[in-house]
Amino acid sequence: MTNYPDTGLFIGGSWRTTADDLPVVNPANEQVIGRVACAAPQDLDDALEAASKGFGVWSRTAPRDRADVLRKAAALMRERQDEIARDITLEHGKPYRQARMEVIRGCEFLEWDAGEVVRAYGRVIPSGPGINYVVHQQPIGPVAAFSPWNFPMSQPARKVAGALAAGCSIILKPSEETPAGAMHIARAFADAGLPPGVLNAVFGVPSEISEYLIPHEAIRLVAFTGSTAVGRRLTGLAADNMTPVLMELGGHAPVIVCEDTDVRAAAASSAVRKMRNAGQVCTSPTRFFVHDSIFDEFLDVFTERAAAVVVGDGMEPGTEMGPLANDRRLAALAGFVADARAKGATVTTGGDRVGTSGYFFQPTVLAEVPGDARVMQEEPFGPLAAVNRVGSLDEAIECANSVPYGLAAYGFTNRADYVEQMVERVEAGNLSINTLEASVPETPFGGVKSSGYGREGGLEGLHNYMVVKNVSHSISIV
After folding, report:
1. How far is the CA of 399 from the CAs of 8, 90, 140, 433, in angstroms?
2. How far is Cα 77 from Cα 31, in angstroms, rounded to an integer?
């Protein structure tokens, strides 16, 4: 008995079941643990109407009062973190300890935006006598938001935080594979006193829901986290209606390891972070470009630490890496490894599925991977790292920038001139030096090139959910 909750639709402040639903599967054992409701067109119409009415109330609520509700919801989720983390582990597979960390991270998004919205100032522009120019920041309107399966709670929380803090209402479409995180967010906000219709959550066939919601005139912003291919599709739908979008799309993060760094520390830290969330992270360090003089030592330590990662059921104590989220990822990882092997890469550890039950895959390290291998061009989104040697920082930066993605990038060095070159030349929205942490709630997060545009988090993230209105006021008619 898992006690995993069945998940309904949350519309207009109430939960509802539907005639159609989908199974939720535990990826550790492939067993069905619950059901998630699927929205029909009437449900979506109801959500659109509820969001429109909710916006009318919430947009006129004082920023300090909005902030109080966000903080109350965050406090409730902190109190419930054990329950939420258990459900996340059951539906996603990640280790329970990592699931608890995800709950806290989601709460931190809410708390940051709650504090920031009371500082979302306008400004007065100097003018002549009898004339005032005042710039106001106002909520953009109802938001259609789409979040992925890899972080069931923190990804939807980031979008909910920005939208609600700014004064928008939101229709959230989380993943049907991992619905419990969003369910717990909706439950916490309802208990915190959020007015009905401000937050709505719907599930169903993703393409059908996006094609129904995005073109609707009530929707004033589309916020999406997911693959570049889907992001392009949703951007096209929004463009037909001149609806702005916030796109946080796929990455393929490079790691530049310079010859002056602490090799063993960089390798061990990289191997652990690479396998976090089973590598199913858009900022996961994947393409390693290591200076030739330290390559062998780096590869040895990286391989040793990756091979030592404890793989198992996320509910078992001691598990460091759980299963992949679904069987599609198993097939994808096997394909990347086979392609790299065929093109001459060396597998230094891993490369295969673990067992026959559950979607487990070995932590995998590929060395000396040719540039035309798929894994060097496509994000594997799994516990797979490619480690290559380079002769200089210039070569490493050239390799780092060789893909169409630019979400996160990392570097290990103690030289100020190397840092400066990376800052100036590496094409990424987020660059981390001597750390593999790509973002925190108080910093802006987003990509360049095919990794999307717009920012979530920080001051910049809140502004995506607002519009600027300039008011010119003359005392006399002129």
Report:
1. 46, 38, 40, 17
2. 27
Q: What is the pLDDT of residues 449-477, one digit of tens each?
A: 999 999 999 989 999 999 999 999 999 99
Residues 106-139 as b/e (b if ≥16 CB within 10 A, e otherwise) read bbbbbbbbbebbeebeeeeeeeeeeeeeeeebeb
Q: Please state the length of the chain.
A: 478
DSSP code of 469? E
Rounded to whole angstroms, how far apart are CA atoms 344 and 338?
10
248 annotated active-site: yes
Give the Cα-Cα-Cα angle 446, 449, 455 (nearest 5 degrees): 20
Could you give the CA distance from residue 29 to residue 452 in angstroms, rounded to a whole number?
35
Classify each residue of 423-462 as buried b or exposed e, where b means 16 or more C-beta atoms within 10 Å of its C-beta: eeebbbbbbbeeebebbebebbbbbebbbbbbbbbbeebb
Q: Which of 405, 387, 61, 59 is nearest to 229 (CA)?
A: 405
Residue type for position 93: G
Say which of 102, 108, 111, 248 is annotated catalytic. 248
Q: Is 282 a catalytic residue?
A: yes
Return d(Cα 219, Cα 241) in angstroms, integer.
Answer: 10
Nearest 5°: the CA angle 30, 32, 37 is 135
Full DSSP string of 335-403: HHHHHHHHTT-EEEE--SB-SSSSS-B--EEEES--TTSGGGTS---SSEEEEEEESSHHHHHHHHTTS
pTM for this prediction: 0.95
Q: How far is CA 412 from CA 18, 291, 367, 415, 444, in A?
A: 52, 11, 19, 9, 22
Pick the catalytic residue: 282, 379, 399, 456? Answer: 282
pLDDT for the residue 2:
65
Instruction: Give the separation between CA 399 and CA 300, rounded to whole angstroms.
Output: 22
